[in-house]
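Give me the fold.
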Amino acid sequence: QVQLAESGGGLVQPGGSLRLSCAASGRTISNYVMGWFRQAPGKERDFVAAVSGSGRTSYYTESVKGRFTISKDNAKNVVYLQMNSLKPEDTAVYYCAATLYGLPSRSTTTGDYDDWGQGTQVTVSS
């Protein structure tokens, strides 16, 4: 089991940037597909992005392509989500997740992941 802890959320104006971090412990994540999901109030938890164990392959939901970048530092056991050109509709609690199985492009539902963090709030508002 991997323990995950997100950080880096906050309040940002539209057009601004934030970088979320997800620190992993208990296991090395070099073999794990790591994902980011988000959940807005009253809505389901939706896929945002995923990255392969090596960090060389990533996959994004259409609405964040070109604005968000997922990356991982296996030496530090950390996954990042760089978010640029933020929009009010990006407001949500963002969750980090881990799975030993699959590919980033096929790991896009909550059921694909075994371990989850507690989430970090991102609010985009003027």
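The first strand starts at residue 3 and ends at 7.
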